[in-house]
Each structure stands twice: as C-alpha cells, then as structure tokens.
Design a protein that fits this description.
Glutaredoxin; 8 helices; 5 strands; globular; five-stranded mixed beta sheet; single chain
C-alpha cells in the first residue's frame, strides 16, 4: 500500500512539472523588449509603472502597487511615469512632475484619481489644475513655476520617449529592467505584481556573471 501511495505521489509531481517552474508565459503574461543591453553585475533593477490619473484601471491597481512597494526589494528602484497621451495627458504629466518637484505628488495622487474619475472633474487647462491643487494647500506661485520649468519639461519629454521606445499603448503597464513589460493575458491586478516579482528574479539571473561596473 505504501509503495502504491509513493507511486501516485511521484506521478502527480511528474504531471505537475518541475518544482518552482515558471507559471508565467512569454507574450501572454509578459512581453520581452528587444535590443536591451546586458546588465552590469550589482546594478539596480529598475521598475517603472506607466499610468494616467484619468485611467480607472490605474486607480484600481494603485492599492496593489502600494502593497508591493511596501515590500519592494532593496535591489529594485521604482518610479511612476505619467503617460502623456494626447494634450490632456501632457498637461497632467506636467502637473505630476511639478507636484513631485514640490514633494506633493504622493499626498495628492489619490485626490487626482478621485476628482478625474469618480467626480468627473474637468481639468482641460493649466488654470483648472492650479485651482484644484490650491484647494489642497499647494502654493500657486511655486506650482506654476514648477509646471513651466525646464526640469519638468525635460521629464515629460523623457516620458514621451519611454512610451515610444517601449511601445506602451495602454495603462497601467509595468516595465521591469527595460527588458520586459506585463502582457495583456493577466487576469487580475494581483497578477501584475506577481509577474513583476517573477521578472525581477529573471533580471537577477541575468546579473549573475555579468561584468562589474567600472570604477
């Protein structure tokens, strides 16, 4: 009887595949980015989230993202990238980076989501955005200066370049190490963070045996 049970266990394990086998499939759950340069050993793994304050899916994904950030590994650096799709996207990207420069982005992020998605508040021009942030105690003069600054304009240009380079055509989209982005075959927001963890592990493997950065 014991031999029969052991045989059944072996058979089940064989059918299930090797222990620790990847549960994510290329092109379905994640998409590789072509022509990515080899990483340097010991370099940080960059994770970017492309999002828009007008995107309901981005708002729904936010709690899962915050939970992931609370346990983010030390060898990973993270940044949000506001997708500057269209004129409205350009305006909100400028607003995002202006608030970031003033140290106010985290405090007002949820407020923008709620106002634009739930309350359907229109922010079609800079004055409308200024009126909104002023309600939360943001200094109007400093905010306007930041929105019109060279630094903010440069960050918006970089965001546009990243969108084009990595062919980001929808949000939320997570890019890992400049090598992979999450695919459209994921069935939940939780899976986005799970595939992110999986791709981080793949990025670590690539760093094993890679040349160390020059000093």
């Amino acid at each position: 009887m014991n031999r029969l049970i052991a045989l059944l266990v072996v058979t089940v394990l064989a059918l299930a595949g090797p222990v620790g086998a990847a549960k994510f499939e290329e092109l379905q759950h994640y998409v590789p980015i072509g022509n990515a340069p080899p990483p340097e050993a010991g370099s940080k793994i960059e994770v970017l989230e492309f999002f828009m304050w007008t995107c309901p899916h981005c708002q729904q994904f936010e709690p899962y993202l915050q939970e992931w950030l609370a346990r983010k590994p030390d060898d990973v650096v993270f940044a949000k990238v506001p997708a500057p799709f269209g004129q409205a996207g350009q305006l909100l990207a400028r607003a995002y980076y202006a608030l970031e420069a003033l140290g106010e982005e985290k405090r007002l992020g949820d407020a923008f989501f709620t106002a634009l998605i739930k309350d359907r508040r229109r922010m079609a021009d800079e004055q409308a955005v200024v009126d909104f942030v002023r309600q939360y105690g943001v200094d109007e003069t400093k905010f306007r200066e930041a929105m019109g600054s060279f630094a903010v304009a440069a960050k918006v240009r970089r965001a546009t370049q990243l969108i084009d380079r990595y062919r980001i055509d929808g949000v939320p989209k997570v890019l890992v190490d400049g090598r992979w982005k999450n695919g459209d075959g994921l069935s939940s927001y939780q899976q986005i963070t799970e595939v992110t963890d999986f791709l981080i592990q793949e990025a670590r493997k690539l760093r094993q045996g890679s040349p160390a950065p020059a000093k």
